[in-house]
């Protein structure tokens, strides 16, 4: 059935390839003509420092990165595109800055770092494995860190040896060295800028006082929610007036355009006929499964799960089938039977008595390209010491390279049969308690101690041929027709919303042109591209998305810059309501300066806050009320404020006590040092923002990828 499934998938692939060829033909025409798909200059992927970057040049850079560093899947391509983008910004934005400032990193400096600071994070990462451990050939046996002399010897004797066999190593290290050089330049610039920060004693003293001067206060609040919205009249003129006054604020601006959609999904799920066809296909396969003696090969060729031959215990199979399998003779094929979203055939191959769970500990010695025999010899030596001194835990902490168990003396705890890789699993479940086998797995050489096992139970060795029930072409066509008919009959916004409710309308707000994810779809770029080429109210034809068809309605367009009133109307209305409610509350509070009297008037109570500082972001009982905090710091002890309109309501506050900070109690030097460190830590981020903004970077890549 795996072969059948592959043929089915490849027939779909053929259609996709033909379709893709047509698309490439059309896109090629776009790119070589004066017509425009997105803009008048449709081959420009970016503008950096006034220089236009052509799609052809950008793609060459991406392909070079893919060939030298990554594979060819979509995730690798995306990673390569991002690296190419960062390289362009570095070359066009930061390299001129380095040149102007005279910042460089010489080969001598690089050698000096390798020699005297070999555990530089970037350098160490290059000479480490995927688990972050330094590769053994470059490891300092005393510290476990990177040995600078071994690295220098490798560079001299192998990387730049001049022999043909070293060309690949030379290319790899040279690419790393130049990337590292750029990173070191960036670090130099950050250090240069951070040294320019200086905090005065006055600034340090003010900041310390803001953090440590404390106020105790009492307050009465009337919340906006106490006044029903329905009792407050808000006109279009009120909304326009508020918007005109505040539209220059950041909350009403956005840095890039967005789109919003509503959409309905038509799921392609296998029909009863699809399930029956899958079952019948397995029924036809069953005689051949019964006759074959090559069970492993048969499962590999016909199962959706290759190598699906394991030991099972009673209860592992679906109810009703489990007892049939455990009462069957060796060679019997049971099924087809339904198991989740698949149909299975199960062939009994034999039985054994074995524990259900085992407890073990191990010492892992990675091979990492070394001679396996040499690592096995090391394992045998360690095992001999353990046997002689009964110190498995200590030896594991000293020699094991398994980060998950090393610090626990190699302890793995209890685990069930089949959980570990086969060779490790067999050593733990086929042996007996107290055994100490040495085995080789894909992870390296293991010294294992079997510490305990549960009581042995009967387990059957069963070969399983599983075939997932997939939608047929007829099912795809039927669902597509449903989606197409929905589009034909509901291609206006009003009809879409009225009839889409039956399918469950979903929303996707604020979609950016550069987005790579949308609604959980695996590759939604076709939807995003459509969104940016249509107008509000447009309904899309069905998009094919894996096992789904999607019909979308474009509901909102927000361009870059100041948002129009219509886009922020709900937020503006909420603020206008607050303002009008605040005026009502302030009028009632007018002339009353006694908090108890105010509390009685509003059927409320006097509340207290202790230890309030100027820097508090959230205040117990108040929440985030910066206006209230600001007013509190202007009052003298015993003074009552005028009504203050906060975020949640209108407040009247009284300062009950202030704890001042004596000037001679301020640790000026420590505070200055802390502030300078804080500022220095953000210098790289701030520099990136400033330089990118100054370069006027325009990123059009999302129109092409």
Describe the structure.
The protein is α+β, with helices and mostly antiparallel strands. The protein has five domains: 103-194, no CATH class; 214-253 and 567-659, Chitinase A, domain 3 (Roll), CATH 3.10.50; 256-269 and 472-559, Chitinase A, domain 3, CATH 3.10.50; 272-354, no CATH class; 357-453, Roll (Chitinase A, domain 3). Strands 18-3-20-19 form a four-stranded antiparallel beta sheet, sandwiched between helices. It has a four-stranded antiparallel beta sheet with strand order 14-5-16-15. α7 packs across α22 (668-681) and α8 (201-212) packs across α22. It is extended. 20% of the residues are buried. Mean pLDDT is 87; it is low at 1-40.
Topology:
Layout: H1 2-32, E1 44-48, E2 51-54, H2 55-69, H3 74-101, H4 107-116, H5 121-126, H6 148-159, H7 167-194, H8 201-212, E3 214-223, H9 236-246, E4 253-254, E5 258-267, H10 272-291, H11 295-302, E6 309-312, H12 322-326, E7 333-339, E8 342-355, E9 357-365, H13 372-389, H14 392-399, E10 411-416, H15 422-429, E11 438-441, E12 444-453, E13 456-468, H16 473-489, H17 493-500, E14 506-511, H18 525-531, E15 543-545, E16 548-558, E17 561-562, H19 569-589, H20 595-601, E18 607-612, H21 626-632, E19 644-645, E20 649-659, H22 668-681, H23 683-694, E21 698-699
Antiparallel strand pairs: 1-2, 1-21, 3-18, 3-20, 4-17, 5-14, 5-16, 6-13, 7-8, 8-13, 9-10, 9-12, 11-12, 15-16, 19-20
């Amino acid at each position: 059935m795996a072969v059948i499934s592959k043929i089915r998938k490849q027939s779909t692939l053929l259609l996709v390839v033909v379709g893709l060829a047509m698309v490439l033909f059309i896109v090629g025409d776009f790119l070589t003509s004066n017509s425009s798909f997105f803009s008048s200059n449709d081959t420009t992927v970016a503008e950096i420092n006034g220089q236009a970057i052509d799609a052809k040049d950008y793609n060459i850079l991406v392909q070079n990165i893919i060939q030298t560093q990554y594979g060819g899947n979509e995730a690798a391509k995306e990673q390569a595109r991002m690296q190419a983008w960062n390289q362009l910004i570095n070359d066009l934005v930061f390299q001129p800055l380095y040149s102007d400032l005279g910042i460089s990193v010489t080969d001598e400096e690089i050698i000096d770092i390798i020699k005297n600071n070999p555990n530089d994070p970037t350098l160490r990462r290059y000479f480490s494995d995927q688990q972050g451990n330094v590769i053994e050939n470059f490891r300092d046996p005393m510290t476990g860190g990177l040995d600078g002399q071994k690295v220098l010897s490798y560079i001299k004797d192998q990387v730049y040896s001049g022999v043909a066999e070293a060309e690949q190593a030379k290319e790899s290290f040279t690419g790393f060295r130049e990337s590292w050089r750029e990173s070191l330049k960036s670090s130099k610039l950050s250090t240069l800028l951070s040294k320019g920060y200086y905090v005065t004693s006055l600034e340090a003293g003010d900041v310390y006082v803001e953090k440590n001067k404390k106020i105790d206060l009492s307050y009465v609040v009337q919340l906006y929610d106490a006044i029903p919205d329905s009792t407050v009249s808000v006109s279009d003129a009120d909304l326009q007036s508020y918007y005109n006054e505040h539209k220059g604020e950041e909350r009403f601006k956005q840095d890039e355009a967005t789109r919003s959609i509503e959409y309905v999904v038509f799921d392609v799920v296998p029909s009863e006929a699809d399930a029956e066809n899958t079952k019948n296909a397995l029924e036809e396969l069953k005689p051949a499964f019964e006759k074959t003696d090559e069970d492993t090969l048969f499962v590999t060729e016909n199962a959706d799960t290759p190598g699906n031959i394991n030991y099972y215990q009673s209860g592992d199979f679906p109810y009703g089938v489990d007892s049939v399998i455990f009462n069957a003779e060796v060679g019997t094929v049971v099924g087809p039977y339904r198991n989740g979203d698949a149909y299975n055939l199960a062939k009994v191959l034999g039985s054994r008595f074995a524990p259900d769970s085992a407890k073990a500990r191990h010492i892992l010695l990675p091979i990492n390209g070394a001679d396996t025999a040499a690592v096995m010899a090391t394992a045998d030596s360690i095992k001999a010491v353990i046997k002689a001194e009964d110190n498995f835990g200590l030896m594991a902490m000293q020699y094991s390279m398994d980060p998950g168990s090393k610090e626990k003396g190699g302890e793995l705890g209890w685990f069930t049969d089949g959980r570990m890789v086969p060779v490790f699993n067999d050593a733990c479940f086929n042996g007996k308690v107290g055994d100490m086998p040495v085995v080789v797995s894909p992870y390296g050489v293991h010294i294992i101690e079997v510490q305990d096992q549960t009581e042995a139970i009967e387990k059957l060795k069963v070969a399983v041929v599983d075939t997932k029930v997939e939608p047929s072409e007829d099912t795809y066509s039927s669902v597509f027709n449903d989606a197409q008919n929905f589009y034909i009959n509901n291609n206006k916004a009003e009809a879409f919303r009225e009839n889409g409710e039956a399918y469950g309308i979903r929303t996707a707000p604020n979609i950016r042109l550069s987005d790579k994810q949308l609604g959980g779809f695996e590759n939604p770029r076709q939807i995003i591209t459509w969104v940016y080429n249509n107008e509000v109210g447009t309904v899309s034809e069905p998009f094919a998305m894996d096992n789904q068809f999607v019909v979308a309605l474009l509901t909102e367009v927000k361009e870059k810059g100041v948002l129009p009133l219509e886009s922020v109307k709900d937020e503006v209305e909420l603020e206008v309501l607050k303002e009008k409610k605040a005026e009502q509350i302030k009028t009632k509070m007018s002339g009353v300066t006694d908090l108890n009297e105010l509390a009685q008037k509003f059927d409320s109570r006097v509340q207290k806050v202790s230890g309030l500082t100027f820097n508090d972001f959230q205040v117990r009982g108040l929440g985030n009320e910066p206006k209230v905090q600001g007013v509190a710091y202007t009052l003298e002890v015993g003074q009552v404020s005028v009504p203050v309109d906060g975020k949640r309501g209108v407040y009247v506050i009284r300062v009950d006590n202030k704890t001042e900070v004596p000037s001679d109690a301020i640790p000026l030097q420590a505070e200055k040092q802390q502030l300078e460190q804080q500022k220095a830590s953000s210098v790289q981020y701030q520099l990136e923002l400033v330089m990118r903004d100054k370069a006027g970077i325009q990123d059009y890549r999302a129109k092409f990828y």
